[in-house]
Amino acid sequence: MQRPGIARRDSQDQVDAHSVALPDSLWVDVPRRSGVAAYVQIEEELAERIRSGMLRSGDRIPPERELAEQMQVSRMTVRQALGRLADRGLLVRQPGRGTFVSEPKLVQSLSRLSGFYDQMISHGILPTSRLLSAGEIPAGVAVAEVLALRLAEPLYKVVRVRFVSGVPLVLETSFFPARLVPGLLDLDLERNSIYRLMERYDARPTRAIQSLEPVPARAEEAVALEVAEGTPVMLVERTGWDAHGRAVEYAKDIYRGDRSRFVAELHLDGDRIEGAGDLPTLGSDDDGNGRLSRLQEP
Predict the structure, then answer these.
(1) Residue 22 class from Cβ within 10 Å (0-12 exposed, 13-18 middle, 19+ buried)?
(2) pLDDT, tens digit, 9 for 90 and up, residues 63-117
(3) d(CA 33, CA 123)
(4) What residue spans in the chain does CATH classification 3.40.1410.10 cover?
(5) Is a pLDDT exceeding 60 seen at residue 207?
(6) Of 170, 176, 143, which Cα lies nearest the Cα of 158?
(7) At the topology level of CATH, where does 106-278 sit?
(8) 6-101 adopts what CATH topology?
(9) Pairing mode of beta strands 167-177, 106-109
(10) Per-residue pLDDT, 53
């Protein structure tokens, strides 16, 4: 029986007509360990081959039936392994076309405070933006409390989609006290880093508290990020303070889960993490247990 090759593709919409024949061992020689489920072993092995570059982004994975025959396991075992890899964002399934190795995820550092633009530039990537809306609104109760504002005090609300290589990666919704950055909306928010623009007002955030929460994409978020409604995305909420201790930003960023990876560098610093006891509570959930909740827009 002829071993399945891997189809290389040049884009999301075009599969290479030629299959690249790779060694039989690519699929057959999956080491087996006793006491570990076969689908877990297959998942781990294929994940390592993706990480090492043996399987590259855009490679087409052979059909489940062929893989099951090659690896001498059931189709259900193969389906479980591929499904778990898809859940991890390493594979993407395209109805009617097959299963492909995903594009590599972009790493977002949680260890330093920098805007999306500067993070991408540090990776040698030039991001682009699309401004969806920008305007002045009165501060509602929730955001007024977080930013230490009076109720109905003027806020600037800016909504942008950030792109990498033409792919929407994050939907940003940001709020800024208008009195601290007067005239911000008159500047070019589509082609500039807002954090860099805030330096003109001596109001760039120098400290922030940030929380991450996996959520399903709502309808408007799915449209902006070009994913299906209900797709897992990462909500990143952030409150930032400037060098003068003023709360200058509250942001709700929605990242595509299939294209983003968040990494933090941690250090052991005695028995207590300095400042951990000073973290403010932004709200409580519906059952009153005091967990952080999503703030509603004003």
Answers:
(1) middle
(2) 888 888 888 889 999 999 998 888 777 888 888 888 888 776 676 666 666 666 6
(3) 38
(4) 106-278
(5) yes
(6) 176
(7) Chorismate lyase (3.40.1410)
(8) Arc Repressor Mutant, subunit A (1.10.10)
(9) unpaired
(10) 82
Structure tokens, 192: 């500039």
Sign of the C-alpha dihedral computed for residues 218, 260, 86 and 66 taken in this order? positive
Q: Distance (Å, rounded) from C-alpha 91 to C-alpha 94?
A: 10
Residue type at 5? G
Task: Give strand pairing partners of 159.
Answer: 133, 173
Residue 107 tokens read as 């790493």
Distance CA 268, CA 192 (A): 37
In the chain, ranges of CATH 1.10.10.10 domains: 6-101
Residue from 164, 210, 160, 162 nearest 185 by CA: 160
Chain segment 19-78, per-residue pLDDT in tens: 344 455 566 566 666 778 888 988 888 888 888 888 888 888 888 888 888 888 899 999
The 3-state secondary structure of the chain, one letter per residue? CCCCCEEEEEECCEEEEEEECCCHHHCCCCCCCCCCCHHHHHHHHHHHHHHHCCCCCCCEECCHHHHHHHHCCCHHHHHHHHHHHHHCCCEEEECCCEEEECCCCEEEECCCCCCHHHHHHHCCCCCEEEEEEEEEEECCHHHHHHCCCCCCCEEEEEEEEEEECCEEEEEEEEEEECCCCCCHHHCCCCCCCHHHHHHHHCCCCCEEEEEEEEEECCHHHHHHHCCCCCCEEEEEEEEEECCCCCEEEEEEEEEECCCEEEECCCCCCCCCCCCHHHCCCCCCCCCCCCCCCCCCCC
